[in-house]
Amino acid sequence: MHLYLWICLVIFFAAFTQGVAGFGSALTALPLLAIFLDIKTVIPLVGLFSLSITFLLFVQLLKYLEWRRIYFLVVGAILGIPVGALFLKKLDEDTIQWTLGIILIAYSIYGLFFKSSKGGIREGWAYFYGFLAGCLGGALSAPGPPVVVYTSLQSWSKDRIKATLQGFLFVSYVTAVLAQAVSGVTTVAVLRCYLISLPVLILGTYGGSYCYGKISEEWYRRVMLILLAFLGAFMLYRAM
Questions:
Q1: Are 76 and 127 in contact (CB under 8 A)?
Q2: Exposure check for the chain: N or C terminus, fewer CB within 10 A?
Q3: CA dihedral 60, 63, 69, 74 (to 10 degrees)
Q4: Residues contacting 175, CB < 8 A, separation 6+
């Protein structure tokens, strides 16, 4: 019984985090759940949780989504996945994580303490950042960071940023969850944990969304950058 209570607490916190920032549920849940669950249970469980959270936010923000922006990112990601898999084969995984962690922390510090251009970057850069996301997805199963960086560089409203993140992450999580189901790693035990925690997941997601609605555009960008810094620090921690 205590086990399910801890799972519910972790999932509430993870759902609340993504409800506010638009990303970060997997980053939050995976290391915490791995403390008291087997990693083979944690990975498909986090996939189901992340897909559910992303779907709830995706539906909320659908009116702000421009499908063309998702298309460019997804095309780039498809091209990058095999390259990332090749990198994983050729390079040490720790080296990839050290590099990514340092880049994310440096970018976050720059974004927090230095003013960036208000004009945003050209739409064509979506292919490049999508490609980087695919590389990281293929190498580390972590496609999110480049897309978060790309959206944070745009002059879009916070609703459009969050909607674009959900669209890209939704496609990524659907692919991952289907692959895990087909491979047989999504067991009855995984589904039981998922169903027990589902009400808490919904509560956390909508609670985070409520808080998101109360913060300004500037503070939303700051929250994104702070979470990116934590993501970078987590990458460095895993590499040590």
A1: yes
A2: N
A3: 40
A4: none
0.85 surpassed by pTM: no
- Longest CA span, the chain: 52
How far apart are alpha carbons 137 and 82 in whole angstroms?
9
Walk along the chain (240 residues) and give the pLDDT tens digit of each residue: 688 889 999 999 999 989 998 888 887 887 788 888 887 788 888 889 988 999 999 999 888 888 877 888 888 888 887 777 677 666 676 776 787 788 888 888 877 776 655 566 777 888 888 888 888 776 666 677 888 888 888 888 888 889 998 988 888 888 888 877 887 888 898 899 999 999 999 999 999 999 998 888 888 888 888 888 887 887 788 777
CA 225/CA 126 separation, integer angstroms: 19
Q: How many Cβ atoms sit within 10 Å of the Cβ of residue 210?
A: 12
Backbone angles phi, psi at 13, to 5 degrees: -65, -40
Residue ranges covered by each domain of the chain: 2-239
